[in-house]
What we know:
This protein is mainly alpha-helical.
Amino acid sequence: MSEIVEREASGLYPESYGAWAGNPAGVKPNLKLCCDSVWDKTSWKSYQCSRPRGHGPGLAYCKQHDPAAKAARQAANTRRYNQKHNQERYQWYGRQFFDALQQIADGHNDARGLAQQVITKFKEGERK
């Protein structure tokens, strides 16, 4: 990488990675690697991502930690969660729907109004 790109990206890197009471200075950043901090899966310590940089602002991120890629993954996860949640709501509201249908079948005077009431209440909790 050119010296200019490294100097430009160095503003995205913290002063050190993994500082803690046993090592208050931490570890100096390696400007050839991704600037994101990742957590050790077996302890509470964090360290610099070991993947090569080349994506995102200043080319300081790896493909996985590129802020645009992270935002896209988060949006996809949120969309999947909301779809799943909305599908589960049909199971939760099943009894209320059945009760409304039963009232309509028994000759409720305002079937359309009752149905609209139940549907409106159902849609209030829908996630978008």
